[in-house]
What we know:
mainly alpha
Amino acid sequence: SLYKPGAKPQGKQPESTQREPDQYRQQPYQQQPYDQQKFPSTYDPNQVRDTYRRSTRYSAPIPNYLLQAILATIFCCLPFGIVAIIYSAQVNSSMQFGDYEKAEIASLNAKKWTNISVITGIAFWIIGILIRILGNTMS
């Protein structure tokens, strides 16, 4: 059963030359006329995900509010300031991974917790001053 040049194959033909059944044949592509094609009736910009739009939307750097968070932690309210620092750190790491939406959300959260820390700190300072003033007048 060695190969002999010029010899015809015996027996069954190879499967590649056999005829395919009609059910497996590719049907010709039939495009509808242009005026009958269905297009979305509304344009949703949130579903557009091309690189150009994302790169122009995030061309300006996203602020991380790290300095403000550190200052709010030191001078205002420690627990809320720590939360702000954590969100501030997430901004930079998300930017490095290219997840701009997550970085923007973390930036907004860092700003929110920094503001909460500052407002809480100021409120505690005011309450402390009022207690000292009222405590001195009552005695």
